[in-house]
Design goal:
2 strands, globular
Length: 250
């Protein structure tokens, strides 16, 4: 990906998101724009969808895509090899399995509720991948080794979420940014691995959406050991898959 496109993406995304979410944070101090009210939610959704919005704008300007139809086709190209879907399922199993084994999970909504939420989470989370993985991760991998590129993407992605921890009423507002940061690393390595072996942004969108949706069913507790074990496990699996994939390509 063109370096200029990546820089423009980052500037545009952070500006749009921080203006939208920052407005809510400031208004909250004076008792306005409470989370859940119509105007607050409009600002919240616009800020959360800055990554795909800005991604489309910079890719269109950079002549990487021609139409919104082309952009959508890239995002929802669901015809992928079964083994790539299997890798996705393995990462999801690990994401929730390690906390379950270490007694760091509590049951939330019914499982079917989590499944039904997956399409919704494509709009509220999954489409972020059109920016973070499709543009940023791809660009960084051209300049840095896989591990360093993924770690840098994880850091930037985590910081982008930071304002959510200051908006009263969000899930993040009652959590720890430090523990969130740890889990972002695990997710980033899983997402980067899926993209590396499949070249499919759709699988990244699906993975992100499934994690968000199923987190309403299996709630991972804010215990540092649980989050560390989970992230370390995901990074180790990612490393093994990448090494195997590189070996197979020789």
């Amino acid at each position: 990906m063109d370096k200029r496109i990546t820089i423009n993406y980052l500037i545009g995304t952070f500006l749009m998101t921080f203006i939208m979410w920052g407005t809510i944070i400031i208004a909250n101090q004076f008792g306005y724009l409470q989370y859940g009210t119509p105007i607050a939610m409009i600002l919240y959704v616009i800020g959360g969808n800055a990554p795909p919005i800005v991604a489309y704008a910079v890719l269109r300007k950079g002549n990487k895509i021609k139409t919104i139809k082309h952009f959508a086709k890239e995002a929802f190209s669901i015809k992928e090899k079964p083994r790539f879907y299997l890798v996705l399922i393995v990462f999801i199993s690990l994401y929730f399995g390690v906390p379950a084994v270490t007694q760091g999970i509590v049951h939330g909504a019914e499982f079917y509720v989590g499944l039904l939420c997956i399409p919704l989470m494509i709009l509220f989370g999954g489409l972020e991948e059109l920016g973070w993985r499709y543009i940023l991760q791809t660009s960084l991998e051209k300049q840095l080794p896989f591990g360093m590129a993924t770690s840098l993407t994880a850091c930037i992605w985590a910081v982008w979420h930071l304002p959510l921890f200051f908006i009263k009423g969000t899930v993040q507002s009652s959590g720890s940014f430090g523990l969130f940061f740890i889990m972002v690393f695990g997710m980033s390595f899983a997402l980067a691995t899926i993209l590396y072996i499949s070249k499919s942004i759709w699988l990244c969108i699906l993975f992100h959406s499934m994690i968000n949706a199923l987190s309403s069913t299996w709630i991972i507790q804010d215990i540092i050991e649980v989050k560390l074990y989970t992230t370390i496990s995901m990074i180790l699996l990612a490393t093994l898959i990448i090494r195997y994939y590189k070996k197979e390509k020789r």
